[in-house]
Amino acid sequence: MVWKALGAGALCALAALPLSAAGFSIFEQGSKAMGMAGAFTAQADDPSLLFHNVGGLGFVEDRQFSVGVTWIHALKADFEGDNPFPGAGYEAEQKKLSEFPPHAYWVQPINATWKFGLGLMTPFGLTTEWDNPDEFAGRFLSTKAALRVIDLQPTLGWQVNPRFSIGIGAIARFSDVELNRNVPRIFPGLGAVDIGKLNLESDFDEGFGFTVGLLHKATDRFSWGLSYRSGIKVEYGGDARLTQVSTGNAAIDALVRAGAPFDRDLPVETAIDFPDEASLGLAFGITPNLLVETDINYTGWSSFDKVKIDFTDNSLPDTTLPEKYDDAFNYRLGLRWTQGNGHQWRFGYVYDETPQPEEAVSPLLPDANRNGFTVGYGLNHLDLAFMYLLFDERTRSRNFPGEGASTFFGTYDTEAILLAATVNF
Amino acid sequence: MYRLKTLLGALALALLAPAAVLAQPDFTRYVAIGDSLTAGFQSGSLVVTGQRNSYPFLIYRQATGQSTGFEQPLVSEPGIPGQLELRSLVPLVIAPRPGQGSPTNLTLPRPYNNLGVPGARLRDTLVTFTGGLHDLVLRPSGFGNTTALQQAIFLNPTFVTIWIGNNDALAAATSGRVIEGVTLTPAAQFDTDFRALVAAVATQTSARMAIATIPDVTVIPFVNTVPTFITNPATGERLALLGPDGRLTPDDRVLLPASSVIGQGGVGITVPLPDNLVLSASELSTISSRIQAYNNTIRAVANERNAALVDTNAFLTQAAQGHVGVGGIVFTPAFLTGGVFSLDGVHPTPAGYAFVANQFIEAINARFGGRIPLVNLFPFVFSGTGPTAAATSTATAADALSEPAPDFIFTEEARQSLLQALRIDPDPKSPSDENGGTGPKGGKGGKGHKGGKGGKKGKG
């Protein structure tokens, strides 16, 4: 109960976002790195190293504290239908949300060799919410889906030698999930009619994992880094609640009411297997003021195979949503230009592959490959970054075997912008 | 990335285009051969509101983009016979609308495109031109007593669909009696006749074909809805119903119209249910195996003739397992609230026919490289103006609450009306039952259907 209240409070500013990185991951955890489209594994030279590469922790010389927020806003989130359902000519829109996930980091040398860090970050999250939910053709699949994640990560860094450092951290992940949809029933001569709304809210539950990284400043002009964040499984408890929607006919409403568990808490269990993630970064000092980094990230999304919702008291039948995600790569290129007066400009590009197979594209979570273009600026204690995120159009035109009832064909078209600010002291 | 892919794709398509265009299935002159399922029969009636959504018409419209050029033997409301309706909601009573409609497209100077004849068995397409609703579709007086096959060939079709054989097993399923050669067509005869039918189309026309399998009639709500037991409302104890051969087991089946007689005068409890309202487990098994045999023939012939094979048998099985639907709405064969079957428990709803049309279109596209767009199911899924229009009942909520869990009454009236429209004897007798009976009823194994000699014409 307490956790739930705390979680709700702490996360209201945080968590839910429209898909800033592929799948439901969020790679924007610090404004300096974001300015370079997250190509930061081989630099890892600000406190957000706790996310990007804990291998950088060993190089920390003094105590630093960093706190920031990212504003994520969808400019466009459209859907156009196709036959057989919801049909050619059908159009719908998601609510164009704004969310504000924060990040906060503290790094501190213990002695010349050992360093300590504590990070708070939101590497996963998602909200998909449809406009006019009671008329949306996909309302029996999803009207709103929200996933909120916050990681707390105590980390230890070891400066092995002046050029090489290793880090290791423990990740405590706290998360909750909300899934809402309408419930239909077919009546002779009338077709499908809404008879209820099913809202599922999980508790604020936890899972644990770890991260390791290394950073090698091979020469004054070249460094490379390797980072790994483990997969984490979070098992959620919680409740669903079925509320009735009147059909307009009292006799029918009474029959419907007698046939389903309305207006009481229905205990549920579900789980999400968050993927592991590995990054390799190569940074080249072209000139003393110009640095280029290229990163490749691998995310083990095949862990996200299905979402099973288990009604533990059998009040309703269990449901399984097949997802069958594929492991995916993303590629980042960042440029850092430092002017003499201490101003630093950053530019970046990221290509983010979607792990989601076509058959899993749905109103609950429609993902696509994305191209992100970034620009950032830093001076003294402040870093700012801006990203324009252009999603490929994503079309669903087929189903997993046996999943014909989930048919919802059409094309999704999304665009988003991100703006971040981080203060360091 | 997307743009590059579409460019490459467009290039590839342009290179392949000539070949692709040749392969496109041509629906300029499309003829549908079949039975009541092809005609758009719905809720016990042949009526324009159902015919407008017949699967052949939907296929034609999707393939050509036009609503004219596909002629059907339209019948005005309330249809022939009067369509079944929900006469009241509480209690839920299903009965035919009074009166009868009339044909509105009778003077078409050529055969109809939709040659689906309600009640036709396979052999009827080859030899029968009159009797019951045959007359309405084949118009013997105007068309020189020609059969469905002959009229189909006459139209010089570019595409032919064939979905026939349902009634060869349906008579057994709906009359509750398996009588070889009378209510159930022998497999060997089916094989011979089916091959003859398809051979005629293949050799006497240049039409491409799509051929459909026979759904397992034991999955239809007419057979699958009424439980084999009754429940004591006070104790929750179940009492197996009494059938013609003793207490029923869960593997037996009670037919839909039994809902109007169970409990009355002790029927089903102390007085056995009549044979024509019960299908025993062994009768079911005989029917199912026979349908499998029919389907073996159909699959083999489709393969030999390079026709698209539409597996409606698999589709209905999928529906029974909850795998059919759209947008999170599951369509099942359940009676009344399943969405696939209409009030007669045998024929689909408009939505059901639309799903069937899409099965045909998918199979045709797959076989012939077609790009026919699927039927848009949205208007079929969300139809009607709301449940306030549902029934004429004046029952209050209190009345509803005092009723037990929803029962329905499928009236004897409805049963007679449906079976007669399908030219199925509501109380068939096997040849051995008759002592010099009235001719056609006991007919030779070869004919296997009623009305061939005209004796039963009146019932249609």
Layout of helices and strands:
The complex is a heterodimer of chains A (425) and B (460).
Chain A: H1 2-11, H2 31-35, H3 49-52, E1 64-81, E2 91-93, E3 98-99, E4 102-109, E5 114-121, E6 125-129, E7 144-161, E8 164-187, E9 191-202, E10 205-216, E11 222-229, E12 232-244, H4 250-258, E13 265-274, E14 277-287, E15 290-299, E16 306-311, E17 319-322, E18 328-338, E19 344-352, E20 370-379, E21 382-391, E22 394-396, E23 410-424
Antiparallel strand pairs in A: 1-2, 1-3, 1-4, 1-23, 4-5, 5-7, 6-7, 7-8, 8-9, 8-10, 9-12, 10-11, 11-14, 12-13, 13-16, 14-15, 15-18, 16-17, 18-19, 19-20, 20-21, 21-23, 22-23
Chain B: H1 2-23, E1 30-34, H2 36-39, H3 48-51, H4 55-64, E2 84-88, E3 92-96, E4 114-116, H5 122-127, H6 134-138, H7 148-154, E5 159-163, H8 166-175, H9 187-204, E6 208-212, H10 221-224, E7 229-231, E8 238-240, E9 242-243, E10 246-247, E11 253-254, E12 278-279, H11 281-304, E13 308-310, H12 312-320, E14 325-326, E15 329-330, H13 350-368, H14 378-381, H15 397-402, E16 408-410, H16 412-421
Parallel strand pairs in B: 1-4, 1-5, 3-16, 5-6, 6-13
Antiparallel strand pairs in B: 2-3, 7-8, 9-10, 11-12, 14-15
Could you characterize the architecture of this molecule?
The complex is a heterodimer of chains A (425) and B (460). Chain A is mainly beta and 425 residues long. Chain A has one domain: Beta Barrel (Porin), CATH 2.40.160.60. In chain A, 7% of the residues lie in helices and 54% in strands. Chain A has a 14-stranded antiparallel barrel. The longest helix of chain A has 10 residues, at 2-11. Chain A is elongated and about 80 Å long. Chain B is α/β, with parallel strands linked by helices. Chain B has helices spanning 2-23, 36-39, 48-51, 55-64, 122-127, 134-138, 148-154, 166-175, 187-204, 221-224, 281-304, 312-320, 350-368, 378-381, 397-402, 412-421, and strands at 30-34, 84-88, 92-96, 114-116, 159-163, 208-212, 229-231, 238-240, 242-243, 246-247, 253-254, 278-279, 308-310, 325-326, 329-330, 408-410. Chain B has a five-stranded parallel sheet, sandwiched between helices. In chain B, a hairpin with a 2-residue loop joins strand 14 (325-326) and strand 15. In chain B, helix 4 packs across helix 13 and helix 9 (187-204) packs parallel to helix 11 (281-304). The N and C termini of chain B lie far apart (63 Å). Mean pLDDT of chain B is 85; it is low at 384-406 and 436-460. At the A-B interface, strand 8, strand 9 and helix 4 of A face strand 14, strand 15, helix 13, helix 14 and helix 15 of B.
